[in-house]
Amino acid sequence: MALLKALVLLACTTLAVHATPTTNMSPKVPRTPFGSIQKRIIGGSTVSKNEYPFAVHLATTYGTEQFLCGGAIVDNSYIVTAAHCLINENTNAVAEASQVSVCYGSNTLGEQRCTTARSVHLHPNYNSQTLANDIAIIQISALTFSDSVAAVPIYTGKLSENTELTTMGWGMTNSNDANSLSNVLLSANIKIGSPELCAQAESSYSSADGPEVCTSNNLTSGKDSCQGDSGSPTVISSGGTTYLVAVTSSGVNMDSPGSSECAAKDGLAFYTHIYYFLDFVSSTTGASNDELTHGLSANVSDEATSSAASARISSSSPAVTAASTLLLLLFFIL
């Protein structure tokens, strides 16, 4: 009987560790333009001077063409962005550091200071087909912090349906007009969608505490991130402080899967959840978890912190969860 109990516990452990996400049910569209046109956020408002001093603009150059993205300063020498921003979509090659320009210090593109990356680090499990683990770190020469240049702490709290976030970027203001240009950083308030709705586009999605945060356009009509916003910060305000929640990754038009239209009525946007990848950020930058979060874990409830931390460790599909529950029930019966 003791041996049987041990086998049941072993089966539970195996299920939890080896849970494998299923494939996407509808294709995501990366929000990075290829070409020299700078495109901006949909339904956004102009950001005040020095309001988000951690926001940076990225340009990755391949010959005469560029990928245009955003990023966030998380340490004086490191930027977090989306991994697909550093992939040449024509060749699928990873960009060399010398091809990546990081511009910072102003909301206005023409007023920014720019520096060339020293190294680029994509998540080792990044998947360019599904956009899983869509996160990368760019190393630059050390910045001098000021009112216009600063690092943003990573948010460690629980994220729930209808939670309001603020996304930003130098991306499209009209997905049907490539000439809808603006030289200033724009922001828009968005809300986290229901897990049930988000799972229709990403079958492995179970909550915003997992690797991705999903927002629903039907909660904030006419507001969305778009092409050119990839890698840009999405933040939350708590106790008068702004915290980094995620970076822009992709979008899905539920009425027309594969469409690049932004702010569609039934559209969803997916953002890479930075706290879920905190260990990757820490190991790449050399900064401790406490330094990257600015000690936030001491300021949020134990329930919120443990919930998000548990999501970082493992996330199971409904089938795996049910199987684990059944095995545990057998354990107690035996």
Describe this structure in words.
The chain is α+β, with helices and mostly antiparallel strands. It has one domain: Beta Barrel (Thrombin, subunit H). The chain is 18% helix and 26% strand. The chain contains six helices and 15 strands. It has helices at 2-17, 195-198, 278-285, 289-293, 302-313, 318-333, and strands spanning 29-30, 45-46, 55-62, 65-75, 78-81, 100-104, 113-116, 119-122, 136-139, 164-169, 186-191, 212-216, 233-238, 241-253, 267-273. Strands 1, 2, 10, 11, 12, 13, 14 and 15 form an eight-stranded antiparallel sheet that branches. A seven-stranded antiparallel sheet has the order 7-6-3-4-5-9-8, covered by helices on one side. Strand 13 (233-238) and strand 14 form a beta hairpin. The protein is globular.
List keywords for this structure.
single chain; 334 residues; alpha+beta; Thrombin, subunit H; 8-stranded antiparallel sheet; 7-stranded antiparallel sheet; 18% helix; 26% strand
Summarize the structure.
With 334 residues, the protein is an alpha+beta fold. It has helices at 2-17, 195-198, 278-285, 289-293, 302-313, 318-333, and strands spanning 29-30, 45-46, 55-62, 65-75, 78-81, 100-104, 113-116, 119-122, 136-139, 164-169, 186-191, 212-216, 233-238, 241-253, 267-273.
Q: Give the helix tally.
A: 6
Based on DSSP secondary structure assignment, what is the total number of beta strands? 15
* CATH structural architecture: Beta Barrel
Q: β content, as a range?
A: 25-35%
Q: What is the number of domains?
A: 1
